[in-house]
Specification:
With about 220 residues, this protein is an all-alpha fold. Helix content is about 80%, strand content about 0%. Helix 1 (about 5-35) crosses helix 3 and helix 2 (about 40-70) runs antiparallel to helix 3 (about 75-105). The longest helix has about 35 residues, at about 75-105. The protein is elongated and about 95 Å long.
């Protein structure tokens, strides 16, 4: 009879699986972001993924694990494992890349690097916590651990539904205006006139032997 893996072995296996997940999806995500994420409806995509894919796959994985984990039905267990991979695909292949791009788009330039740095650090800290808590959680509350993710994504869905603005095909200035910032758009005619006036003034300076404008 095969011995059950120790807690340490389980942790190592989970870390290896997470590492392979990141490595395997890195190439796909780079293609995914270039080809679709910059052209698709960002807010709508986040809402649809949270409702249609993330919730469904999480609940599917929980139900299949409850029904087949402690049985000898190998087909059922195979579909339970499929649920885990669908969960990974829905999150890392679709939802995760979209939310990171959205954060970069909506943040002001002065705050972008700081906020995204804090977000990235928080993201991976929480990932480590979730991974380390996984063996104990699945041992204690079993498949109900998936509903923790359902609850978190439901909260995020409410925030996205009421506060996220669509950014598709919008400039950074238009996105800032959608979030309530006061944006002053320069008149194109005024810009041309100011450029012509500066060019004429430069010609006057050159005729008078002054280069680079008046001395400061």
């Amino acid at each position: 009879m095969r011995e059950s893996p120790t807690k340490y072995q389980t942790h190592v296996q989970l870390i290896v699986v997470v590492g392979f997940d990141y490595a395997a999806w890195l190439q796909f995500l780079s293609f995914d972001r270039r080809r679709y994420r910059d052209h698709g409806p960002t807010r709508s995509l986040v809402v649809v993924l949270l409702v249609g894919k993330f919730h469904r796959h999480s609940i599917y994985a929980a139900v299949m694990q409850r029904e087949f984990q402690n049985t000898d039905n190998r087909v059922g267990k195979g579909f339970a494992i499929l649920g885990i991979y669908l969960f990974v695909i829905a999150y890392y292949g679709m939802l995760n890349s979209t939310t990171w791009l959205y954060g970069v788009e909506v943040l002001p330039i002065a705050l972008r690097s700081k906020v995204m740095g804090i977000a990235a650090a928080s993201h991976f800290i929480v990932n480590v916590g979730i991974t380390e808590a996984g063996p104990a959680a699945f041992s204690t509350i079993k498949e109900n651990y998936y509903y923790v993710f359902v609850g978190c994504s439901t909260f995020f869905l409410v925030i996205a539904w009421f506060f996220f603005k669509e950014t598709r095909q919008k400039t950074l200035e238009e996105i800032a205006e959608a979030f309530g910032d006061q944006i002053v758009f320069a008149d194109e005619r005024q810009i041309v006139e100011e450029a012509a006036a500066e060019a004429k003034l430069e010609e006057v300076w050159l005729e008078n032997g002054v280069r680079g404008g008046p001395s400061k």
